[in-house]
Amino acid sequence: MKLTLKVWRQNGANDNGRMETYPVNDVSEDMSFLEMLDVLNDQLVRDGKDPIAFDHDCREGICGMCSLFINGEAHGPGRGITTCQLHMRKFKDGDTIHVEPWRSAAFPVIKDLATNRGAFDRIQAAGGFVSVNTSGNLVDGNAVPIPKDDADKAFDAATCIGCGACVATCPNGSAMLFTAAKVSQLSLLPQGKPERKRRALAMVEQMDKEGFGNCSNTGACEVECPKGISLEHIARLNREYLAATVTKE
Ligand code: SF4
Ligand code: FES
Fold it and tell me: Quick one: which ligand is closest to 220's CA?
């Protein structure tokens, strides 16, 4: 395939940025989108030009690092996949493809298509953990009975890979789906219950501090989430937060 790429180039958070156009030839439909960008970068380096910066790590849908807005969709066309799982067979010979970084005030651009998603790490650090006894007198996790339904829901929430597509897709730039997944994952399990009030309050407070927008229930986040994290988790976060607020000491 021969393609035309229009790629966002930006030299740091203070640069205005601009779209630049690149022709790419010899693209196989079996390439992943990131492999196609590798081909373009090889070409740019051979021509003595600055390669395009973009994030990636596992390239198998696990780490959440890849993060491209492709033709106006987070992780491009297709549902339930990350950018690294997107293949060029989704496009046609002669297509023009627009590639942009996640757009959110809370995810400043580092360079080109790479953004700083440290805000997610700080939300997680505010309460996305359980405190455990490390004295040696431990209860084996498998000895704690957990209803199957709760275990399944907690596992669904735990599949969030922290990619940020929910934020990039939301017209308000809200991080509610991410925060809700992290709160739900722990609040559903017995090990997470002792700290549930403190967790919900601290994680929501940090989310607000980071400058994410408010949730207005558009549901766009659920549609574009590569792991299918359900809006039900946002409802659970709202209940957790309300309960923590009214019973706060
Ligand atoms: S909720 Fe979905 S879209 Fe949002 S960070 Fe987690 S995996 Fe990515
Ligand atoms: S590179 Fe790890 S999820 Fe895409």
Answer: 1
Q: Which domains does the chain have, with CATH numbers?
A: 3-111 (3.10.20.30), 118-246 (1.10.1060.10)
The answer to whether 78 and 226 are in contact (CB under 8 A) is no
The pLDDT value recorded for residue 93 is 97
Q: Is the CB of 178 under 6 A from ligand 1?
A: yes
The pTM is what?
Answer: 0.95
What pLDDT sits at residue 92? 97
Predicted local confidence at residue 246, as pLDDT: 93
Pocket perturbation via mutation, ligand 2, pick of 58, 87, 227 by most ligand atoms within 8 A of CB: 58
Q: Is 67 touching ligand 2 by the criterion CB < 6 Å?
A: no
Q: List, as one string, the DSSP characters of 101-156.
A: E---TTS-EEETTEE--HHHHHHHHHH-S-----SS-PPPGGGS---HHHHHHHHH
